[in-house]
């Protein structure tokens, strides 16, 4: 059988970073497993590619990355379902807390009703806190298990490479680069997976519960809100696209400033020998002013 395909898209690396392609070699399955807690993932055909992506907003790149970790994510389905189940309990508790809290002002004169509803509110609030804690605990465990399996798989692929991969006449891959990708980048994958799991389903459940409560309280207000939401969503999408464009220009200005410094500082002897201090100072101030204006525009946006 062949090994699965995995792609880790690395962000915020220098533009000169070379691609690191670790192509898997079809072989017989090994009997070695990490332990009973991390069962081996069913293999698929393909290769592993760890690469530096210059287009972080590419939808195709995101889809390929999600497809690459899909086998590892599916192996944690029990923990994910447990986390989402406790998320549903948390949303249900919140949906019961809101109407009861709204009725407290109308029963201030009734001591028995205050005690009864107060105890119910305390119980619901405690249930929500416990459910939130268990939801995050199960989802974090699933995300960290996924990162551990990815690290084990990548390290196994590294061990299969020949010496030329590491000593390619100056073009080989450094040990620090591999260690950074196996540790830091895998941790970033775990954080991203947790953010997705902790946002998608719980947010949809909470939105549905709040929509149901709004319909019960005031159908007319719910209809008005439903008509306003699409226009707000369009405005947010427009402003988001504009902010991404401004942020990209700001990043490019910082990159141009850094590239200029990397060009001039190593050649400072040539600059002084050619009496180019004034011209280089003017050029640096122009780049610095461009970066200043773009950064201020980004913050004002």
TrEMBL record:
Q: Where in the cell is it found?
A: Membrane
Transmembrane ranges, per UniProt, are 214-239
Q: Which residues form the ABC transmembrane type-1 domain?
A: 118-301
Q: InterPro entries given for it?
A: ABC1_TM_dom (IPR011527), ABC1_TM_sf (IPR036640), Type_1_exporter (IPR039421)
Q: PROSITE patterns, from UniProt?
A: ABC_TM1F (PS50929)
Classification via SUPFAM superfamilies: ABC transporter transmembrane region (SSF90123)
EC nos: 3.6.1.3
What are this entry's molecular-function GO terms? Answer: ABC-type oligopeptide transporter activity; ATP binding; hydrolase activity
Entry GO CC: membrane
Enumerate the UniProt keywords alphabetically: Hydrolase, Membrane, Transmembrane, Transmembrane helix
- Give the membrane topology: Multi-pass membrane protein
This one is known as: Adenosinetriphosphatase
Q: Which organism is it from?
A: Opuntia streptacantha
